[in-house]
Design brief:
The protein is α/β, with parallel strands linked by helices. It has helices at 15-30, 36-52, 60-69, 81-88, 97-107, 120-129, 142-145, 152-162, 176-185, 214-218; strands spanning 3-6, 111-116, 138-141, 169-173, 189-193, 208-210. Strands 3-2-1-4-5-6 form a six-stranded parallel beta sheet, with helices on both faces.
Length: 224
């Protein structure tokens, strides 16, 4: 094995935690002291709106739906909502120290890369803010390269930049359709990152399933 490539959101970075953090910023800035069941209901609704528009670059609908459901005295103007999301959300992410140690170990043995869908500005900000940039030999962002997972060409582009063949690389991601099926179409092996131990509701067959990053270095066969 000569290269391992990773998805970003919900693989290298915990997007669920970041959404929670953004909600708490909104709560503090626009609602003040709210506790108990209302706070819980507001968080669940915010996550529901985010999930509905997950993968869509324009997040205005997420925020406007939330403010419509829970009107506030100092409501964020609609025309400022996208800028607010772009400026705040990337800084709601943090790196997991165990994951970084695994990346350090892997990087000593093979090349590593990121392939992520999303806006260039937001994804670059996440990668920079969390200190991930220095770990990777190649970083491809869909908006920047004009290709989006599961299009096999974005995986092929990464392989070309790393100068490795498909059978010499693995891709690790949480999304069966975009990550696993996509990389397999490019003749790479796909490792499904499944920390919540979800059942696979699809016909897509990952080449392996891991529940933690430590399994990547414990499974020494991955490097053969």
């Amino acid at each position: 094995m000569k290269a391992i490539l990773f998805d970003l959101d919900d693989t290298l970075l915990n997007r669920d935690h970041a959404v929670d953090n953004l909600f708490y910023i909104i709560l503090e800035k626009y609602y003040g002291a709210i506790q108990g069941m209302l706070k819980k209901d507001m968080l669940e609704k915010f996550k529901e709106y985010d999930k509905r528009d997950y993968g869509i670059a324009d997040k205005t609908n997420v925020l406007s739906s939330f403010f419509d459901a829970f009107p506030s005295t100092f409501q964020l103007p609609r025309h400022d909502m996208q800028d607010f999301w772009d400026q705040q959300f990337p800084y709601c992410f943090s790196s997991d120290q165990h994951m970084l140690k695994v990346l350090q170990t892997i990087k000593k043995q093979v090349q590593v890369g990121i392939i992520t869908n999303g806006s260039t500005q937001r994804q670059k900000a996440k990668i920079t803010h969390t200190g991930l940039a220095s770990y990777f030999d190649v970083i491809l962002i869909s908006e920047e390269v004009g290709l989006t997972k599961p299009d096999k060409r974005i995986f092929e582009l990464a392989l070309h930049q790393l100068q490795v063949q498909p059978n010499e690389a693995l891709f690790v991601g949480d999304d069966l359709a975009k990550d696993i099926a996509g990389c397999q179409q490019a003749r790479m092996k796909g490792i499904w990152y499944n920390p919540h131990r979800l059942t696979n509701p699809t016909d897509i067959k990952p080449d392996a399933v891991i529940h933690s990053f430590e399994q990547l270095i414990k499974g020494r066969a991955l490097f053969n």
